[in-house]
Amino acid sequence: MNVKKLRPEKYLKYLYLPNLFGTQRTKEILSVNPTIIPQREEAKEVVVYVFDYDSTSLEEKRLSSVEACFPYKSSQRISWINIDGLRKADVDRVCEHYAIHPLIVEDILSINQRPKMDEVEGILFCLLNMLYYNTEKQTVEQEQISIVLGIDFVVSFQEDASRDVFNPLRERLKMANGKARQRGADYLCYSMLDLIVDNYYLVMEKLGDRIEMLEEEVIRNSNKRSLARINQLRKELIVLKRNIVPVRDLVSGILRSESELLDDRTTKYFKDIYDHIMQAIDLTENYRDMMMSMQDLYINNVNLRMNEVMKVMAIVTCLLAPATVIGGIFGMNFEEIPYLHNQYGFWIAVSVMLIIPVWMVVMFRRRGWF
What are the CA-CA distances from residue 325 to residues 116, 275, 347, 361 (Å)? Predict the structure, then answer.
């Protein structure tokens, strides 16, 4: 017999009121102040991977330290240096060796940055966020990634060493006849941006499924929890839009750039990313419109139920009104009232009290009032 293990922490969190109403998530989303320089926590572990390749050979290594990647600057091949986990001292050493401007170093070490693209002293720099969908918490999580494109090298800086979206690219680099092995570092940069943007669609599909289920719930049996779920989804769409929309300007800046680092043959591939990001923005706007319509639908359902209750109460009041009037008349303290001392007076009064409501019900039905 399987016994389901109870998790008290799952329910204890609701004892804290901000968790109950979702205000903590609102604070996480909206508490971004660009005038305050936040302090980044130093990574406990730094993982460095290197892919050094050309059309005929590939070298893949996990390095023990950031200094071990320095010789690849002069390898005469394309080098992708991926650093998972950020420490200021390590980032400074790598950027100094690869002649990366201090302004770019500052952006790499910053947090909650808006996605952007810069071109400084022969270096092309892209900063954006990778998005993931947390199924357990049902939230959209983000991880900042910085991509530095130089002559025959790409250096990428990630925050989390346990996940990214580049596994398909790693598999492609292992294929000797693959396009990634035949092209330069700019194509490698394109491939990384393309995978990040494609992963946006996976996150949006998860949110789309939740929106579809919530819409069915609101239509069939909406309640206060439905309104809470609507507000929660709207917050996740804010995170989605905040990270997706600026990428359009990032890719547009690459297309307008006249940098020697970008081959003319690669430009059409960046145009493809631009088309994908525009479609993602349109889809995000559609989701937002759906959530607004869903909220209006919820409010309309609440008003409709209230109207149904009020209609029933009004009908009951109308049906009881004749009996109230007749009872009130015959309850007056007068000596002379018709049929007061008649042996059939009571039954006549009760019959009238019943006949009039029945007649009213028939008239209401004919008029289509219920």
Answer: 77, 74, 16, 18
Count other C-beta atoms under 10 Å from residue 42's C-beta.
12
Percent of the chain with pLDDT over 70: 88
Instruction: Label the pairing between strands 78-84 and 123-134.
Output: unpaired
* pLDDT band, very low/low/confident/very high, at 281 (cuts 50, 70, 90): very high
158/345 Cα distance (integer angstroms): 93
Whether domain 23-301 has CATH 3.30.460.20 = yes
pTM: 0.78
The three state secondary structure string of 113-140 is: CCCEEEEECCEEEEEEEEEEEECCCCEE
- Does domain 311-367 match CATH 1.20.1070? no
Pairing of strands 47-53, 58-63: antiparallel
Q: Report the length, in residues, of the chain.
A: 370
Beta-carbon contacts of 299 under 8 Å, excluding residues fewer than 6 positions away, are none
Cα dist. 72→81, 107, 332, 338 in Å? 9, 24, 108, 114
Q: Which residue(s) pair with 49 in the sheet?
A: 62, 82
The per-residue b/e assignment along 141-180, b for 16 or more CB within 10 angstroms, e otherwise, is ebebbbbbbbebbbbbbbbbbeebbbeebeeebeeeeeeb
Measured between its terminal Cα atoms, the distance across the chain in Å is 53
Separation of alpha carbons 166 and 355, rounded Å: 80
Structure tokens given for 150 = 């130089």
Residue 10 has pLDDT above 80, yes or no: no
Neighbour count for residue 76 (Cβ, 10 Å): 9
Ranges of each domain in the chain: 23-301, 311-367
DSSP count for the chain of H helices, then E strands: 11, 7
Partnered with residue 47 across adjacent β-strands are 84
How many Cβ atoms from other residues are within 10 Å of residue 59's Cβ?
13
In DSSP terms, 82 is beta-bridged to 49, 156
pLDDT digits (tens, 9 = 90+) for 28-67: 666 665 555 556 788 888 899 999 998 888 999 998 889 9
